[in-house]
Amino acid sequence: MSQSRNEKIKFASIKEVDYKMPVSKSKKYTLIDAVQPLEWYCNNDSETGYQQTINNKSDGTIIVNGGIGLFKVVKKSMETRVETQTLYFTDLQSGLCGFVQLLYSTVMGGIYKGFQLNFKIFRSENNNNDYDVWESFKLNDITEFKPLRFVSRNVIFEFLDNKDEKLGSIGQLSIKCDLPTCNNTIQNLKIDLLIDLFQGFKMNPNGCNYYFDKEISATDELISSDKMVRHVFVPKGSCNGQISYDKKLNNGSFQSKVIELTNVPVSYLDAVQGLLPNKAASNWNFLCFHSENYSILAIEFTTPQEYDNATVTVWSISEKNKLTAIGSSVQSPKRHVRFRATSTDKENHWIYPTSIKFPGRFSEHNLRLVNRYDVLGELPSMVRSLAQKIVSINPFIYQYCQPSKFKHEKGISIIESTFIS
Fold first, then answer.
1. Residue 1 domain-assigned?
2. What per-residue confidence (pLDDT) applies to 277?
3. pLDDT class for 233, splitting at 50, 70, 90?
4. Residue 55 falls within a domain, yes or no?
5. Tens digit of each residue's pLDDT (9 = 90 or more) over 271-282
6. Residue 238 belongs to some domain of the structure
7. How many domains does the structure of the chain reveal?
8. What domain range is 104 assigned to?
């Protein structure tokens, strides 16, 4: 979206990219050919303003002890940030799909910090829910948090600088997990995965879209803000390893599940949100598609009216292990995600898609809903009521997974539509 120098804005988006331009020719994004650019964004000491030494309380809370006064930290930044590093997998042979996500939240510039592991698995076909799981685990006893390595008592999440030029990988991601705690539906969750990551990208200069409290002039000069939304994309990877857990049955007993992943296609996404969810976006759309030869990754969000009602879309196409197209748009209707058919949720009145079209010429006409998630559902009724009345939000996530096609090649797509306000 072009902007004149006299125009006033409260939201500065990434630049638009013509997906028809050869990948190596654009100067509006940076290709990622090593694991170093995948480091945790919120681990940057220069950003938080203190040296990161951490003590753990028994409930998992991390207290900062950095040799710098508390009030100086607060003065540096009062923002709350959430960063997620997510691995999406689609097993084309078994039809099992899901994600492993490490979430890091920091409140008021680092006064409170916390980590959790989110784990989701479901089938792409039939309604057999014998594998279906969506659980979150708060992680305690964090012993190491470096830009490329996280270690707690039960989880290791680490990027390895192990390139394979013959394979075309830029490095590896190792995820190891051993969580004996029983949550709602599972216990004894064990994850041991090694992922070869292929070429990724981020929009220049650092993948960020910026939000401003006051209107500023839209110029070509470099501008930034503590309030931001940032994404780093690795559309294609290959995963090997095992996931196992004991799933709780209706009679209260547990049944063991073991999932072997062999050369399973994956996508990796690093996302940072530097302001409250209802301030960052009113809605989101997401696509992860894999077939034998193609991978598509797309994300779209629309800012609330307070921040110009801008719609930002980013997508990419990989063929085999190489990026072949990267595109982005801002308020360009021809390239935005389209709901081709919809249904109305009688409980919350959200109009959610049953058929959808993404940029890059990807469409799915038979969306298969695998999860409808009430984000506020687990909050106490009084808190939920206040959030809905005062903040005017009623967030719901609609998750889909189904067999799909791209360029006449069969594959599997994971699609999400999120509605906030």
1. no
2. 85
3. very high
4. yes
5. 999 988 889 999
6. yes
7. 1
8. 8-419
Give the tens place of pLDDT for each residue, 46-100.
333 323 434 444 444 333 333 222 223 333 455 678 999 999 999 999 999 999 9
| Helix (H), strand (E), coil (C) string for the chain | CCCCCCCEEEEECCCCECCCCCHHHCCCEEEECCCHHHCCHHHCHHHHCCCCCEEECCCCCEEECCCCCHHHHHHHCCCCEEEEEEEEEECCCCCEEEEEEEEEEEECCCCEEEEEEEEEEEECCCCCCCCCEEEEEEECCCCEEECCEEECCCEEEEEECCCECCCCECEEEEEEEEECCCCCCEEEEEEEEEEEECCEEEECCCCEEEEEEEEEECCCCCCCCCCEEEEEEEEEEEEEEEEEEEEECCCCCEEEEEEEEEEEEEEEEEEEECCCHHHHCCEEEEEEEEECCEEEEEEEEECCHHHCCCEEEEEEEEECCEEEEEEEEECCHHHCCEEEEEEECCCCCCEEEEEEEECCCEEECCCCEEEEEECCCCCCHHHHHHHHHHCCCCCEEEEEEEEEEECCEEEEEEEEEEECC
Q: How confident is the model at residue 127 (pLDDT cuts 50, 70, 90)?
A: confident
Residue 220: pLDDT over 90: no
In a domain, 2, yes or no: no
